[in-house]
Amino acid sequence: MFGLKPFRYLAKPIRVLIGINATVFGLVILGALIGLDSQALVLSVGALIPIEFTQAWRFLTYNFVHVSFMHFLFNMLMLWMFGDEVAEFMGHRKFVGLYIFSGIFAGIFSIPFYLFGSLSPYAMIIGASGALMGVFVAYYKFFPERTLLLFFVIPLKMKYAIWVLIALDIMMSQTNDSIAHFTHLGGVLAGFIFMYLFNNNRVPFWKRWFLPKNKKRNSRSNRSEKVLEGEVAYIDQDKQMDAILSKVSKEGVSSLTESERQYLLKAGDRLRRRRGQ
């Protein structure tokens, strides 16, 4: 169906995110089956409520809350269809950063429109849509010429479809149609910000908080560079190659240092010489 990759072959972040969303939604359904009002409990604890914006955890938890089957199914289908390729292309860690950043930023972005606009400050914002809009932006950046069926009907290239979705959210933002359009727009803006940082090899500010001091980081980086510059430094070149390929799989090609790139090029040259090419 839709040409989807089997679940077990999806990138690990996609499987984990779908699993978390399914677990939360499963608790809602299970509670209903045994006569408990688990939906109210999940919403009271996990939904993003504009008037309760000081409860910071809600900016994260709302991304994993769904209480409608169709809402849950549609969002997870979108994550399955678009998220897997993005995760593999940009690297698993950066994809998780994109997803979480987009979801949190989308929530923060939408709060003023509820508190000071015509929308209700007591509304409950839930669902992965804000984070998914960030993923859509990344997909648009990586695969602008891909054709998709917009609304499962209209064939449109991604470079046009993303702007159609943005225009629709802007036009529908004041209709009170129970869709968090400003959250969608916040996710789009977050996606463009993250992709700008990604394409320019910038270290996001939140990552710097978890890095060692500059002096220690630079000295360790320098030691790593020295090792990677010389082929004779490797006791087992196969293990070194495996380590570099594993890094590409997890973090993307852009994560490689110049020495690691040169090592791959030299390895390719050696392989071609062995084959007599």
Describe the structure.
This protein is an all-alpha fold and 277 residues long. It is built from twelve helices and two strands, in the order ααααααββαααααα. It has two domains: 7-205, Rhomboid-like fold (Up-down Bundle); 212-274, no CATH class. Strands 1-2 form a two-stranded antiparallel sheet. Strand 1 (147-150) and strand 2 (154-157) form a beta hairpin. It is globular and about 65 Å long. The two termini are 43 Å apart. The relative contact order is 0.10.
Structure summarized in a few sentences:
With 277 residues, this protein is mainly alpha-helical.
Topology:
Blueprint: H1 12-33, H2 38-46, H3 58-61, H4 69-90, H5 92-115, H6 129-142, E1 147-150, E2 154-157, H7 158-172, H8 181-199, H9 205-208, H10 214-229, H11 237-251, H12 258-274
Antiparallel strand pairs: 1-2
Helix pairs in contact: 1-4, 4-5, 4-6, 5-6, 5-8, 6-8, 7-8
Which labels suit this protein?
single chain; 277 residues; mainly alpha; Rhomboid-like fold; two-stranded antiparallel sheet; 65% helix; globular
Q: What is the number of strand segments?
A: 2
The number of helices is 12
- The percent range for strand residues is under 5%
Order of helices and strands: HHHHHHEEHHHHHH
Radius of gyration, taken over Cα atoms and rounded to an integer in Å: 22 Å
Per CATH, the superfamily of the largest domain is: Rhomboid-like
Average the pLDDT over all residues and give the rounded result: 81
The N- to C-terminal Cα distance equals: 43 Å
Strand order of the biggest β-sheet = 1-2
State the CATH topology of the largest domain.
Rhomboid-like fold
Under the CATH scheme, the architecture of the largest domain is Up-down Bundle
What global shape is seen? globular
